[in-house]
Amino acid sequence: MARARAVKALYAVLVTLLLTAPAPAPPASADATRAAPADRAAPADRRPSPRPAPSRPGGARPDMGSAPAPASVPTPAVTPVPRRPGVRGLEIAVPAYVRADDPVLDGLAATAPAPSVVVLNPGNGDAPFDASWQARADALRAGTTATGERTKVLGYVHTDHGSRDPAAVKASVDNYLKSSGNGDGRLHVDGIFFDVVSRDCGPGNATRDHYAALRRYVQDTMHAADPDAAELVVDNPGTAIADCYLEPGHRTADVFVTFEDTYAAYTSGGRYGGNVFDPLGGYRSGAELDPGGTAFWHLVHDVPDAAAMRTTLRTAFGRGAGYAYATSAAMPNPWNAAPEWAYGLQTGYAATLG
User: Sorting pLDDT into bands at 50, 70 and 90, what band is 40?
Assistant: First the structure.
C-alpha cells in the first residue's frame, strides 16, 4: 500500500507541472512572413538620398524591447558590361555650364553608371582652365560608364555661327589643351565642344571647311601634347545639320548636337525627327552617314518628370541618336542645374537601350 501511495503522489506532481507550464507561441502567419521583405522594398525611381540610408524606410523604429533586427545585406555592385561590337546603344552626355565648385559637378562625379560625356564651361570657354577646373575634370574622367569605359570631358568653345575670328577660337581651344595651370603638362580633357555652330555649308562649302579646319586644329594640338590621345570633337548647331558636314574627308566633328529644345517640341514630331538635311531632299535621319549610330546627340529641356525622361531617351534612340540628355530645368539656361531626378536614373535607363 505504501508503494502505491508513493506512485500516486509522483503522478500528481507530474500533472501539476504540466498544467502550470507556459503554452508554446503560435507560428508566424504567412502574411506576416511576406510583409517583411515588402516593407524593405524601395519604390522605383526614388531619388537616392545623399546621406546613408537608414536600415528601414522612414528611419529606425522606436525600441520596444524586442530583439535587434538582423543586419541588412548589402546590395551587390553591378559591374558594367561593355556593349557587344556592332550593337548600337545610347549614351548620356551632359552639358554642365556651372562653376568649378558647383554641387552639380559633385553629383555627376558620384553617378553610377557615370555619364559618357560631360562638357565643362569656364567663363563661356574663355576663363583660365586652371588647377581647380583640371581637378574637376580629372574627378569626372575617373567615372565608369555603363559600357565599362571612362567618362570623357570636353571643353566648351563658342564660335558665333562661324563668324568668330578663327584666331580667337583657337586661343579658346588652347586654353584647354595647352594651358598647364598646375604645371603637370598633362591633358585634362578629351576634346572640345564647339557651340553656336552654323548648320549650313556656306558658299562653296566655306563654312563647312572652316569647321573642318577647327577639328584638325584640335586633333593636331591634342596629339602634340599626347600622341596617344583619342580626341573627341562635337559641333552644336542645335538643329539638323547640312549633310556636307559629314562628307568623308571633310567631316567637321565626331558628334553633332542635332536637337536642342523643349520636350514639347521634341515630342511634336515633324522636322524634329531628322538629324541632317539637304536643300532638295529635306530632313532625314542620316543613318546612312552614321552606320555606327554615334554621330548625333539630342539635348532636351523642360522635361516634366522621370517618366517623360524615359520617353525622351527612347525617342532619341529611335531617331538615330547615339547620345542624349533630358533635364527638367528650363530656359534661360537649362544646363546650369541638375534635373529633378537623379542622374543615375538616366544613365541606368539609357544602358537598357540597345
Answer: very low
Q: Which three cell numbers stand for residue 344?
A: 543615375
Q: How far apart are the first and last CA of the chain?
A: 94
SS3 content of the chain, % helix, strand, coil (to 5): 35, 15, 50
Cα 100 to Cα 153: distance, rounded to the nearest angstrom:
13
Residue 171 φ then ψ, to 5°: -65, -40
Return the amino acid letter for 257: V
Using CA atoms, how far apart are residues 296 and 235, in angstroms rounded to an integer? Answer: 10
- Report pLDDT digits (tens) over 87-124: 789 999 999 999 999 999 999 999 999 999 999 999 99
Contacts of residue 215, defined as CB under 8 A and 6 or more positions apart, other chains included, come to 233, 251, 252, 253
**Would you say 60 and 54 are in contact if contact means Cβ atoms under 8 Å apart?**
yes
Is residue 316 within 8 Å of residue 349, measured between CB atoms?
no
Amino acid making up residue 152: K
How confident is the model over 161-172, as pLDDT tens digits? 999 999 999 999
Q: How many residues does the chain have?
A: 354
- Residue pointed to by grid coordinates 523643349: 262
Tell me which residue of 215, 163, 166, 209 sits closest to 191, measured CA to CA: 215
Q: Is 115 exposed, middle or buried (0-12, 13-18, 19+ CB in 10 A)?
A: buried
Distance from the Cα of residue 129 to its chain's centroid: 23
